[in-house]
């Protein structure tokens, strides 16, 4: 049985003038969050590290790669879902995103509905798991894509509220064998400088 940790990237420097966050880097706090996670690692030492190609995920993965001495395997299929990729104003983007959450089959300008993204993410994780047996592996990615998959494993409809509950540098634990199951839902591990310990 393979243990898979899904890690949402750390906090980013949020752009103000665009809805396209592809080039948004980690903030200093985001780097601290990832370091705190590595120091309070909630599972066995990993033997493999996968990441989305987007900058915030790559920078988060680099911190874990340094901590565990692992190379990063980039998987484009872990890329975050987006309603639009052209960088429209954020209010317009938020309206599209809300429509997508209301109707998971709605295909926004990006060309991918949330339902389609859920299938892409699930297939990606299953493909990763096929290359590992009885290993602990790490997958660094994004809140929306991961929430679609873990909501399904919880037996629930994905929602914007559940996605919003997944904090920066939070981790979930899955087991993958003949089927995939959620062992522990997303939660914090470790405390970054300047943050209070979770209750």
What tags apply to this protein structure?
globular, 6 strands, alpha/beta, 36% helix, 199 residues, 17% strand, Rossmann fold
Explain the overall architecture:
This protein has six helices and six strands. With 199 residues, the chain is of the alpha/beta class. A six-stranded mixed sheet has the order 3-2-4-1-5-6, sandwiched between helices. β5 and β6 form a beta hairpin. It is globular. The mean pLDDT is 93.
**Computed CA radius of gyration, to the nearest angstrom:** 16 Å
Within the largest sheet, what's the order of strands? 3-2-4-1-5-6
Mean pLDDT: 93
Q: Could you say what the CATH architecture is? A: 3-Layer(aba) Sandwich
Provide a brief overview of the structure:
By secondary structure, the protein is of the alpha/beta class. It is 36% helix and 17% strand.
List the helices and strands and how they pair.
Blueprint (H helix, E strand, L loop, with lengths): L1 E7 L19 H12 L8 E4 L3 H14 L3 E3 L15 H13 L11 H17 L5 E6 L1 H11 L6 H5 L6 E6 L3 E8 L12
Parallel strand pairs: 1-4, 2-3, 2-4
Antiparallel strand pairs: 1-5, 5-6
């Amino acid at each position: 049985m393979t243990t898979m940790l899904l890690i949402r990237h750390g906090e980013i420097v949020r752009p103000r003038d665009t809805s396209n966050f592809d080039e948004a880097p980690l903030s200093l706090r985001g780097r601290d969050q990832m370091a705190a996670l590595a120091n309070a690692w909630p599972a066995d030492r990993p033997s493999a590290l996968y990441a989305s190609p987007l900058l915030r995920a790559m920078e988060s993965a680099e911190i874990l790669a340094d901590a565990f001495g692992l190379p990063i395997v980039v998987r484009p299929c872990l890329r975050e879902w987006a309603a639009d990729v052209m960088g429209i104003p954020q209010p317009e983007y938020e309206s599209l995103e809300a429509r997508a959450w209301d109707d998971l089959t709605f295909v926004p300008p990006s060309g991918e509905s949330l339902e389609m993204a859920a299938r892409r993410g699930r297939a990606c994780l299953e493909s990763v798991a096929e290359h590992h047996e009885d290993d602990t592996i790490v997958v660094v990615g994004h809140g929306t894509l991961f929430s679609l998959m873990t909501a399904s494993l919880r037996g629930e409809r994905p929602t914007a509220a559940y996605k919003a509950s997944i904090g920066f540098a939070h981790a979930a634990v899955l087991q993958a064998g003949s089927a995939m199951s959620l062992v522990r839902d997303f939660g914090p591990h470790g405390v970054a400088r300047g943050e209070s310990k979770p209750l």
